[in-house]
Design a protein that fits this description.
Elements lengths: L8 E6 L3 H10 L8 E6 L7 H9 L4 E6 L10 H18 L7 E5 L5 H18 L6 H10 L1
Parallel strand pairs: 1-2, 1-3, 3-4
């Protein structure tokens, strides 16, 4: 692992729960690692496989998907759709030679600001152990083609 390696995380957060939890963490001054770039999506079920592959292709060391707890989805079943895609993505990433630990799915409600801190900090530490996602330019181009 290179000295001073700081992993880059792309975090796709549901507008109705996890994004609001991240906002709560900010307004409550709950500090967590600044390694995550948050992308607000209307529902975790809208996180397409292409979004995740493109994040890795563009240099992310990890991708975090955050959504409403099962049964609490604003769109009724979006988080179940996200779960199915997550399981598919784990298999796909493994076949592409990307450690499945680089992808994480978490259910975080709007009231769980501290949970955002815990999850992001845990993921940062896990990615530091794994090290950078060392994909060559050719491998990243292939990820872009797939995406």
């Amino acid at each position: 692992m290179p000295d001073g390696f700081e992993p880059k995380i792309v975090a796709f957060f549901c507008n109705w729960c996890t994004y609001l939890a991240a906002d709560l963490a900010g307004t409550s001054r709950i500090k967590y690692a600044p390694n995550a770039e948050v992308v607000r999506v209307m529902c975790s079920g809208r996180v397409d496989v292409q979004f995740v592959l493109k994040a890795f292709a563009k240099g992310a060391d990890g991708v975090l998907i955050g959504g409403c707890h099962p049964g609490d989805c604003h769109y009724q079943e979006g988080n179940y759709k996200a779960l199915r895609r997550y399981r598919l993505l784990k298999k796909l990433l493994k076949q592409m030679g990307i450690e499945e630990e680089r992808l994480r799915l978490e259910w975080i409600s709007a009231a769980e600001g501290d949970r955002v801190r815990v999850v992001i900090n845990e993921m940062v530490e896990q990615l530091k152990v794994l090290g950078p996602l060392n994909k060559t330019g050719e491998e990243r181009a292939h990820l872009m083609e797939v995406a």
